[in-house]
Amino acid sequence: MAPILKFDPSGKLVKSFGEGMFVFPHGLFVDKDGNVWVTDGQGKEGKGQQVVKFSPEGKVLLILGRAGIAGDGPDTFNAPSDVVVAPDGTIFVADGHGGDTNARIVKFSKDGKFLKAWGKKGTGPGEFGGLHAIAMDSKGRVFAADRANSRIEIFDQDGKFLEEWKQFGRPSGIFVSPDDTIYVADSQSDEKVNPGFQKGIRIGSAKDGIVKIFIPVPGPGEKTTITTEGVAADARGNLYRAEANSNNLRKYSR
What we know:
Helices cover about 0% and strands about 50% of the residues. It is built from no helices and 23 strands. The strands form 7 sheets. A 4-stranded antiparallel sheet has the order 3-4-5-6, with no helix packed on it. Strand 9 (about 105-110) and strand 10 form a beta hairpin. The model has no long low-confidence stretch (mean pLDDT about 95).
């Protein structure tokens, strides 16, 4: 089955692609030209551990990483969890998924040339316990979901640590809209792993970090086992939530 699915606003499937290419498709980003970027977070039998750029029609345009090979060099990844692309085409990959994987952000030029990497395992500024998502605001700041440390870390594009935010919970997914509204999916918080927070989606401002809206997940009438790891919004402000364990995509009106 093709893992990349395109739906119209009513939820009708209109296109799919990527069949047979991935081991564990994990992160997805659509750039300003409509190209679709996907990270493959595991490696097996000569596949995976890569970042793939597709055209809007599903044609492969660029591949980063070496198929099936885990590493921490300029041309290898170990569990790349997500990718974001700046308006000028510069590519940033959140490389790692906790455990015995990498814990770094890797920067590439628009044509895929390695530029630099930063980060290591830890709990301090610029360190990561478990990367899970990456996003960018209108100023070009890089927002990294350091899920295992229950925080978002913010960097400039050269890797300089700017600040950390813990008010959005334990982030599994981050999306920043063009007006700098930030949407954060928290699939793990409870009184044991992140006291004072509960699972759900927090919506606020990427400019000042103020949380304005909280949507609990699971919501009324939903199964208690539901976990939301992905989040995005469209140009009309509709919210989309991706459930990792039930394989559902849910849409909320603004």
